[in-house]
Design goal:
Elements (H helix, E strand, L loop, with lengths): L7 E4 L5 H9 L4 E5 L6 H17 L5 E5 L4 H10 L4 E4 L5 H14 L2 E6 L6 H10 L2 E4 L12 H4 L7 E3 L8 H8 L3 E4 L4 E3 L2 E2 L1 H11 L14 E6 L7 H8 L5 E8 L7 E2 L2 H10 L5 E6 L2 H14 L3 E10 L2 H16 L3 E11 L4 H11 L3 E5 L7 H18 L7 E4 L6 H9 L4 E4 L9 H12 L3
Parallel strand pairs: 1-2, 1-8, 2-3, 3-4, 4-5, 5-6, 6-7, 7-8, 11-12, 11-19, 12-14, 14-15, 15-16, 16-17, 17-18, 18-19
Antiparallel strand pairs: 9-10, 12-13
Helix pairs in contact: 1-2, 3-4, 4-5, 13-14, 15-16
Length: 457
């Protein structure tokens, strides 16, 4: 992950699994978990668990412990936990302490970052500490102030191991790249709506700026993902639903349909999105859109206004003419400009004016991240579903051979676990499920079994 050619992005002050998960899926290189002192036992336990879960579920090696502790035993304990890939010593540590922590890092194969106060102006001290570290961070000792470091100060320091912090955001990061060519950036307040609440669209815009020079593929979970499907019918008891189910899943899936595809399928989830923002602001949601093209951008804007913590916007059409393909590409480009990730949902038996492989290649070039293939009915038997969608899944997997395809299925209430195993064998690695989890006292057990059955493939 730490490619010398890439400008690295580290996002700090992450306190929950959902935010960490979204950052990994946004291609962030490092995630900073703050355990400020060795006395902060509760924070240490919870953040070790978050980092461990991220390490297990994703191909990710950028979990970073951020601390001001001067207790070497604390660093030894954190190293032995196996949750963190990097240690960052904050609070302007001296050379002797950095040297001692370096020995712990070397034995545990952990990378080391040391914060250095640019106002000290001590180039000799900077050089000495830099020799001990994998990266050296220019930042104020307090951290998280949002205060910019002046260009005159930044210009004094060598850039070969340099990470820049202090007031970095999507508006000024390009200028900093051009002037100082650092190894990377450490950002906290510049991408926050409030303390700890990250604005994913800003993070993705920053990634787009960084990747203009060094593009990278987005990562997807190495294991199966399970999303909780909510509808407007859950509005009245949303608090109870979230309390019982939300910790079991990887996110929330919402639908919006204006009856464009079927007059029997009309759904508006804006109230649910607003409730989610109020009750669980760090929980991301995917939005599946079925609406007429002239309403598309207005609908998306409404959802962003009520809850901007969107994971992926899913677009579905039953058939694509040449005109509809052009409209689709325009909407994809518009969503990418907003910093949103895009998924395309294919209907089995999709009618296209071109070869399916050419169509998908066009979508990849446009920046589409995920794909879903659905049968003509969610209640089809497994045999019918396989016959309908497997050829498309095989085609997708072949086209996307350089990065794992994220494929989805809506799981109906009656589908048993053995059927799920077979569906997973088709290439599906994510499901969306609602009724089977909501209100069930066996939800936790069922989710664990689902993950086990899907992980076989």
């Amino acid at each position: 992950m730490f490619n010398d050619r890439r400008i690295l992005l580290k996002i700090c002050r992450v306190d929950d699994y959902f935010t960490a998960r979204q950052l990994v899926l946004s291609d962030v290189d490092m995630i900073g978990y703050h355990i400020i002192s060795s006395q902060d036992c509760f924070s240490a336990v919870s953040k070790k668990e978050i980092a461990k879960k991220i390490k297990m579920n994703f191909r990710f090696s950028g979990n970073c412990l951020v601390t001001k502790s001067r207790n070497l035993k604390f660093y030894e304990d954190m190293a032995s936990a196996g949750s963190f890939d990097l240690f960052q010593i904050h609070g302007s540590p001296n050379y002797e302490f950095v040297h001692d922590v370096r020995r712990i890092c070397e034995s545990a194969r952990i990378k080391l970052i040391a914060q250095f106060d640019p106002y000290l102006g001590d180039l000799r001290g900077f050089s000495q500490i830099s020799e001990l570290c994998d990266y050296i961070l220019l930042d104020y000792p307090a951290g998280g102030t949002g205060q910019l470091i002046g260009d005159a100060l930044l210009g004094k320091f060598p850039s070969d191991k340099l990470l820049i912090a202090g007031g970095i955001n999507e508006a000024n990061i390009q200028e900093k790249i051009e002037k100082f060519s650092p190894q990377g950036f450490d950002i906290q307040t510049g991408v926050e709506a409030s303390k700890g609440i990250k604005i994913l669209s800003k993070i993705r815009l920053i990634k787009k700026i960084l990747d203009k020079e060094f593009p990278s593929f987005s990562l997807v979970p190495s294991g199966p993902s399970i999303y909780l499907a909510l509808t407007d019918a859950h509005t009245s008891n949303i608090q109870n639903v979230l309390d019982c189910s939300i910790e079991l899943v990887d996110g929330v899936h919402l639908d919006h349909s204006d009856g464009h595809f079927s007059k029997h399928f009309v759904r508006d989830s804006r109230v649910i999105a607003a409730c989610l923002k109020k009750l669980r602001p760090n929980v991301p949601y995917d939005l599946h859109i079925f609406c007429e093209k002239q309403k598309f951008q207005d609908v998306i804007t409404d959802y962003i206004n009520v809850n901007d913590n969107i994971g992926t916007i899913w677009i579905q059409e039953e058939q694509f003419s040449q005109e509809k393909i052009q409209d689709l590409l325009l909407n994809i480009n518009w969503l990418r400009i907003l910093g949103l990730r895009v998924g395309i949902s294919f209907q089995a038996g999709l009618s296209l004016p071109c070869d399916f492989a050419d169509f998908v290649s066009l979508l990849i070039d446009a920046g589409v991240f995920q794909y879903s293939v659905v049968g003509t009915s969610f209640n089809k038997s497994t045999d019918e579903y396989e016959q309908a969608v497997r050829p498309m899944l095989k085609e997708l997997a072949g086209i996307e051979k350089n990065r794992k395809v994220k494929l989805w299925i809506m799981l109906d209430r009656e589908m048993d676990l053995e059927k799920l195993s077979r569906v997973a064998s088709f290439g599906i690695n994510a499901v969306s499920i609602g009724k089977r989890l909501i209100g069930s006292d066996q939800a936790g057990s069922y989710v664990r079994q689902m993950r086990a059955h899907m992980a076989r493939y």
